[in-house]
User: Fold these one by one.
Assistant:
Number 1:
Amino acid sequence: MDTGRITAAAIVTATGVGLVAVAARQLWLGVSGVAGSLVAGATLVLGVAFAAGGPAMYRTDVDSDHLLRVAGWNTLGVVVTIAVLGLVAAFQAASGGRVTAPLLTAGVVVGVSAFAHVLIGFNDVRRIRARTVARQRRKAAVVNRFVRHDLKHYAQLLLGYGRQVTETAAAREDADDAAVADGGTSTDLAAVGDAVMEVGSELAETNERIGVIDDLLDDGDERRTVDVTDLLEDGRQRWESDYPDASLTVEVDDDLRVAAGDHLDTALAELIENALEHAGESPRVTVRGERRGDVVRIAVRDDGDGLPELERELINEDRTETQLDHSDGLGLWLTKWIVEHYGGRLAVESEATGGGQVTMSLPAAEATD
């Protein structure tokens, strides 16, 4: 059961029921003149519209959070208008004035105000959805470029390896010396086989990344409490085994927990493995994690050359990506999207003395529990 959706629909419907009750009461008591009939009729129409609008909102494809936003605007219009009318009525009473049919008068004003605020709410939601669609399109453009580049690159490699296999097979058939056929070319075939397996591994890794991105685009992997200390300890042995010449230092607070999900493991691995792989022959990588208020900061620093200026500006959103100015790696973008999916932020830095640092800031678990 979607409680948020039900709540939003109930708020709008309750506004309509209240307006219908006010109009029905006045019609029962009687109205005087055309103006009175118009005011009562307008209140009744607004009430019916709101009463029917609640269930209609529930059945739309608008996200529950957005419906709650619309309901919030509706509530704001009702509360603020009632407060203003209360002050006006108090002023008139103190001045000896009197309002005819105050309940009906207040009802039509509140109804009009609530209707206007609902329109504002839907426009607000439309603006938010437009921004979301624009971000999704940018993500899709980045992914499309990387996938096309990788597929083209790997296709060229496979074609090259295919030619090597064909040439080697032909050489075996034409060779008069069995030693050349058995000894000289078998090693070549083994090398080609290893290269093909490496290409397959790279393609599998790209496929896994695309799977994570699909999950993020579908709003999958809801937040829960994740122990960062455990994630780093679980991966440390693997990283030290895969990069024996590297020095990996992990300095994190005990029981460092964030509000994230399963893909946080992917984000951490992308940052750490990227630093271990590209920071030189014997890289020194340090991972530091600490909590500051309601935010947990995890920094991965290496002693390499640091990220290029263009890469930093794109990831930090200081520059817009174009066909000419674009990133060269999908891993950092994937990390950025994962962190943002969990309500966090990714920042990339390079120091003048050498080395680079990537910092992810995420909400602490207790901040959202």
Note: The radius of gyration is 32 Å.
Number 2:
Amino acid sequence: MWHLVCGDNAVAGVTHVIGAHEAEAGLRVLRDDLAVGPLADVDMPPCAARAAFWRALWPEAVRPVPDFATDLPADARWIAALAEQSRPVTVWHGDSASEQLLLARVAHALADSALPLWEVCCGTGDSRVASRRAVAMHAPEALAALAKPREVDATRRRQLAGQWRTALLDQALVRRWHAGTFHGEDFGRIDASLLQFCPAEGKPLARVMADVMAHCDGFFATDYLLFWRARELAAAGHIVLSGEAGAHGYGGLQARLIL
């Protein structure tokens, strides 16, 4: 059995549930945050546009830089090959748009395959900030109590595969998950939220980003995504960033709104 999770933070909990031996043999971590950035070539190695997006987003001060040009095509080829092997696949997911997109991506890859697809649902079904739960948000013991694998039936597999095809075609840059469907948009809503929480007298950028995260329904806005959008807003003359980069490339920065 393959066990697929979205991001490294889910590894400890899932390993606790399935056991170290099973995890060593079949736990696969997919690190691409599918909720953001262009998806048109994500399943088409060398995934040049997808890799270019992540290179532009990655903070200059943070090292090492992931090898996006190698890792993203490798993931695409691995997912495409799932239908050609004999292991069933289990996707662990919660209310993260990225986790839900991974499930849809795998369903699409297995669209013409009789290979069993299983899911472990770890969310609430509500992607609003106050209610949502990603896999990594559960303590290992709590995750064990939630872990009730169920096979994805043919109708749901077709629905999920169709959602993935739509996501590939809609040219959105942000995908929010709400009521079981994805809603695409550009970066305008995120940028507006950053400006909303950035005062004219200045404020630590980390605090501004935390305020945006606390009001971001539908997907998990990461610190690196928000730091990139803050740099773009600064380049466009909407805010001023000052100070030393600090931890994670932004820890010592202040943000000030230009009126």
Note: The chain has two domains: 2-178, 188-257.
Number 3:
Amino acid sequence: MVRRNRAEMQEHNRGRVLAAAREEFTERGFRDAKIDQIAERAELTRGAIYSNFPSKRALYFAVLAQDVERAPEQEYPPTATTAGAALGDFARAWMARLPLATEDQRSASRLGRDLIPEIVSDERVSRPYSQLTSLSAILLGLCLERFPSSRPAAARMVQVAELALTTLHGAGQLAAAAPGFGEPFAVVRACEQLAELDLDDTWRPAHLPHVSPARPVDRPWTPPAMTDALREEPAVLEPAVLEQDGVVAVLGLHRLAAVEEALRAAPPESAVTVALVTGNPGELGPLARLVVADLRAGLRAAVPPSVWPRLRLVHDESGTLAAAAGVSAVSDATETAVRIREGRIVARADGYGACHAAASV
């Protein structure tokens, strides 16, 4: 019998906890689930549960994130050629994940029924979730802008994406609260029509005239190996690749909407990398992974890779990439951005507007 080292044993036990928790949450729902019962199912102690997850809610988020991350990939590549068709395919993929009215209330497909109530109950969770949802709308909207549409060529489509996500989240909540209500195909059709709405949406952030320019610096850029959470592939961050002009932003979960500033201000040839950081990685890290995985699934079903934003998104729960960018301590309010050129950090900005300042160098 091969003995596992400490790290392997921790990973093994974490897997056992997640499997046991999934069974408990499916059978009892989040509120009635008990940590002691999860420990018994996993054949571990209560202390072993809390050594892996700081709270029952953190464990719940981790179970949901694992389910989405392990879901089968889209069997066929997306075929949409217009913004409306892409929104329809995105909505179709979203609706396909919702439970059917005929399924039992304790079926596995209803595992996420307690997610929104739990988020609403605590501002420490709802505020990051709001920004994570804004991030989803920004990235979906940027994709839609690259499709043909009857709208003006320079029209921003983030508000259209926000409306689509509002519609789909509402449909999801009604699927849990009122099984059988509404017609899924009508929801898909409604989302398709959103692409042609004229919402007078333009890019004009009010604070930009008041943003201080990035300050020049000169230090080596030695990033760690990381994974791009959007594409589920290694985020190639090494200096040889970033000899081209690039921007690296370190954003806490209260500042994620600043992603749009980096993407719109950076020159078209610039690489843009965003490290998501948080002061509460045990609980909010899994929530961030859940939302990004949900977005990734929708984009894979609806948007060809050539249309995706020129963005690498990294879950930096340990702060390793942030440290490489010179950020030694992170919180949910962190906003720092650096400009990379020829393997060196040549400019840095901190605080409100930092993404725009660094991208505009």
Note: Confidence is low (pLDDT under 50) at residues 239-243.
